[in-house]
Amino acid sequence: MSSRFLASTVIAALLAPVPALAQGLPPTQIKVIASSDQSTLHKSLERPFWTERLPKASGGAIKVEFSGLLSSGLKGPEIVRLLRTGAIDFAHGVFASVGADDATFEGMDLAGLTTDIQTARRVSDAYKPVLDRGLTEKHGIKLLAMVPFTSQVFFCKPAIAGMTDLKGKKVRVFGRSLADFVTAMGGTTVTIPFGEVVPALQTGVADCAITGTASGNTAKWTEVTTYLYVLPVGWSVSFYAVNLARWNGLDPKVRAFLQQQIADFEDEIWKFTAEENKDGINCNVGRDPCKFGVKAGMKLVELSAGDQPALARVMREVVVPAWAKRCGAACAKEWNATVGKVVDISAPQ
CA angle, 108 as apex, 116 and 281 as ends, to 5°? Predict the structure, then answer.
């Protein structure tokens, strides 16, 4: 899907007439904590949706107090806890960063689980009812949408030609699942805050670091790395959610309106991210089209057919079993009945 078409779609949505559903909505004020202020998602879709499109579509009934994650002073891992206590109303969070609160969250985006965004969407749709119920019952939170960032890949300083070359490398990871994956390949994991990755790569504290194809470009990792190994070890799948008591306290018309608007927004993000992912790779290796980032001169290393057997083995023998042990038998059973059927993997119970 072209950038021009996506932009036209967003503009058309902003200019569309007020839908019938919006008629008669009571005045409603909501507070939203969004994704990182620096992300392309935030700038291109998220901020316009919450601050322009949603209020306009509601006929002015809904007013939004909007903050990005960074400007709100938050870091990310505390989002579920703050939603649970009612300290915040609506928020965006990344499943990998809140995995410490509930291992079920990890099952959405295990390292190496899906190597293309179409399968990632199928996994998301399959697992959504499980996560929705878990968030409601365990945390008092209503799940509204699940969306991806660009594929999480390897930015490496030393030469790398495939999975076997991860052996002996010091790799910056985030989350337990990525650590399981890198360790299984013979690498050494390093936990470094995102903002400190560039100097770590410069000084050799890390040989490689994992992040999204687009975010690595934005953060200028391209200036301190040479090889871009596009083995997707995740999509940094994230969510929009709301405190359940706050949600139940809204007028039923407002709830129905928000659900429809956010469902449409969810679809747009999946389409947009598919394009942004390709764009991020193009920018990193210096080829056109490069719309969102800055052209660099990295060497592209594709996921080869020869890597596929090793990837399947690590998933079945290490990553999925390690996660299932953390999550428990009941959790693994639900995963097998949903995600497992999509990717044809069975977690031990």
Answer: 30
Q: Do 272 and 314 reside in the same domain of the chain? A: no
Statement to judge: residues 192 and 72 lie in one domain: no
Residues 207 and 63 reside in one and the same domain:
no
Full domain range(s) for residue 91? 3-149+236-279
Whether residues 89 and 228 fall in one domain: no
Helix (H, G, I), strand (E, B) or coil at 27: coil
pLDDT in tens, 177-228: 999 999 999 999 999 988 899 999 999 999 999 999 999 999 999 999 999 9
DSSP lists the bridge partners of residue 301 as: 229
Cα 318 to Cα 303: distance, rounded to the nearest angstrom: 20
Cα separation, 70 vs 92, whole angstroms: 12
Residue type, 299: K
Extract the tokens encoding 324: 């299932």
- Is the predicted pLDDT of residue 168 greater than 70, yes or no? yes
Residues 229 and 196 in one domain: yes
pLDDT digits (tens, 9 = 90+) for 235-247: 999 999 999 999 9
